[in-house]
Structures are given as C-alpha cells and as structure tokens.
Amino acid sequence: xxxxxxxxxxxxxxxxxxxxxxxxxxxxxxxxxxxxxxxxxxxxxxxxxxxxxxxxxxxxxxxxxxxxxxxxxxxxxxxxxxxxxxxxxxxxxxxxxxxxxxxxxxxxxxxxxxxxxxxxxxxxxxxxxxxxxxxxxxxxxxxxxxxxxxxxxxxxxxxxxxxxxxxxxxxxxxxxxxxxxxxxxxxxxxxxxxxxxxxxxxxxxxxxxxxxxxxxxxxxxxxxxxxxxxxxxxxxxxxxxxxxxxxxxxxxxxxxxxxxxxxxxxxxxxxxxxxxxxxxxxxxxxxxxxxxxxxxxxxxxxxxxxxxxxxxxxxxxxxxxxxxxxxxxxxxxxxxxx
Length: 338
Ligand SMILES: [Ca+2]
Hints:
It is found in: Secreted, Extracellular space, Extracellular matrix, Basement membrane. By secondary structure, the protein is mostly helical. Among the domains are: 2-10 and 27-90, Orthogonal Bundle (Annexin V, domain 1); 265-334, Annexin V, domain 1 (Orthogonal Bundle). It contains 20 helices and no strands. It has helices at residues 2-13, 34-46, 52-59, 64-78, 82-89, 92-101, 105-117, 124-133, 136-150, 154-161, 164-174, 187-200, 209-218, 221-231, 239-246, 249-278, 284-294, 299-310, 314-321, 324-334. Helix 2 packs antiparallel against helix 3 (52-59) and helix 19 runs antiparallel to helix 20. The structure holds calcium ion. The site of calcium ion (CA) has 6 residues, from loops.
C-alpha cells in the first residue's frame, strides 16, 4: 500500500502549473497497456543475451509517467525493481541512458548535479550546463527534488564544491531570484542595465563581477535580450565578446552559457550536441544528458535549430557518430529525421 501512495505522489509531482510550452519528441503512447509492456520487458530481460531492441522500443517511446507505470507493473509481477533489473541486463552508455529515462526530467537533472559534485573534484562542465541553462522554473523544481532525493540543499552542495566568483554566480542562479517576464517594456531600465554592464566590464580596469552577476541572475530573459541589444550602443564588443575579454575559466564559461541560453536556449543545446558528437570518442555523457533531459521538454525545437545551424539533421549526425544499441536508443528519442 505504501508503494501505491508513493507512486501516485510521484505522478502528481511531475505536473507543474503555468510552465513554458513544451516541444517534446517523446509523448504519451495511445492505447497504453503498462501490464503488457512490463511483461514484454520482463521477457526481454530474461532472454539469453538480452533483447535490447524490445527494451529500447518500449522505454524510449513512452512518456515519463507511462514509464513509471510500467516500472510499477514490472515490480508487481517480477517482484523486483525495474531499475535493478535494467542495471543487470544492460551496460555501458545504453544502461546510463535507460536508467536516466526511468527518472523524471527534474529528478534526472538533480541526480546529474549531485553526480557532478560527488567525491573528489567537480565536473564543472556538467554543473555549468545545468545551472546556467535551466529556466528559473526548472531550477526551482530541481532544488525541491534535490532536497527530496538527497536530503541536502542544492546551494549548500554548490557552495561546498566551488569557489570565488564562479561560486557566487552559480549560487546567485540557484537562489532563483529572476524576475518574471513583464508585459511592460521598461526602456529606462534596459538602458540603465546595458550601461551598468558596460561600466562594470569593458569600460573599466578589471571587472566588477558582482554587478554582472546581479543583473544576469535577477532580470527576466526578455528584458536581458533587450539589454544585450542596447549594450552594443555602449560597447564596441557585444556581450559575448565582452565576456571573453573580461573573465576567464569557469566564470567565463558560465557567463557565456547564460548569455547563449538567454539568446536561444535550443540553439545552445543543438551546438553542444554537435560539439559533443564531433569530439573524439563522442562525449557520450553530454549527448545522453541532453537527449534524456530535453526529450520531453524541447528536443523538437533543438532538432530544428540543429538542422538550421549545422545543415545536417540531428538524426543523421547521431547515426554517423554513435553506434550499436546506444545509437538505436538515441535515434528513437530523437524521434525522426528533418
Ligand atoms: Ca574591464
């Protein structure tokens, strides 16, 4: 009984109100039969050599809520947890991808953040990607789920794992103080922020990073888009060039990611996918993370940006740079060629 209520609780948690419109490639399947899916997965796992194709066909073509229902049915029939069974049956990047799919988008983001800070050292690249690319709403949810899952506050973990201005920027973002977009365009404020960004950076010796952080972590995205336009009337360098000139290392990467996402978040993900796949030995971690975390959010739009920017479709690029069952799973999440 405890299991049922926990399961229902999770189902309701995954529905937030008033969020941004979604452009998923993975949507609920019609005529859904979780018991049948669970039985097919059970057979696939028990098959000698494992029938990966069936597992991929089912789990990459069901919504997150449906995957949860399948997991529930599976546990009822097989008397074992589906995650554990998948871990035993699969390996390598396919295993990581499938286990990622068994989490909600928010749980997945929270777990990726946790993993990026676990143990000695920090995976700054992952930390920057998630903290700087997620919307205020997404970050609010991630913080809540992070605390739920790990019994710790996200900001405390971030503070413990980073330092200096880089830490200050990430913490300011994690505090989720960003204004909601307003219907009224405040031209005075746009001008004032543009001038402040210029005076705090390109205009002076050194950089007043605190001013950059406060503007970039507190203003709404549509406001900032106009600020960066206005910024060009003060500075000979645009905002991204100014970041390159003024700051270095993880701080530079973070500000750069932020501005890229303010301008066009789906293009940022498209470019990151392209880079990760072109890099030697395809950075599977990055590819998996973006495909799993965006397939029920905006992967359809990422596909459009990908094709526009790189002249090749995401589908063709995945087909070219990855292989085996992992490739089949990625192509299925991608959802089609463009
Ligand atoms: Ca300067």
